[in-house]
Amino acid sequence: GQPTIFSKIIDPSVPAPILYEDEKCLVFRDVAPQAPVHFLVIPKRPIPRISRVGPQDTELLGHLLVVAARTAQAEGLGDGYRLVINDGKHGAQSVYHLHIHVLGGRQLGWPPG
To answer: Which residues does UniProt mark as catalytic (predicted)?
Structure first.
């Protein structure tokens, strides 16, 4: 399909403040942070939505969560943080490339949205 802003960050025709990168994923700060610490964890292989994953994605999804946890620790989020994956129109997904929001650095409210 059409390139997304995230595929342009991966390739890297669009610059981003990178926090971590390996062969499977990329972590960078959100351009419109919703908390004092707000970064995104994205797979380098484009997956449009979490609802479109299959058994072949099990290892990659686990890797994304491990990277999110390690980066949260490196960013000083020892008191806790929130992981968010938006899916589709009703889930408020704005970029159709799977991404995990990691938000922290303050007390977060519940319930969200």
So the answer is: 99 (tele-amp-histidine intermediate)
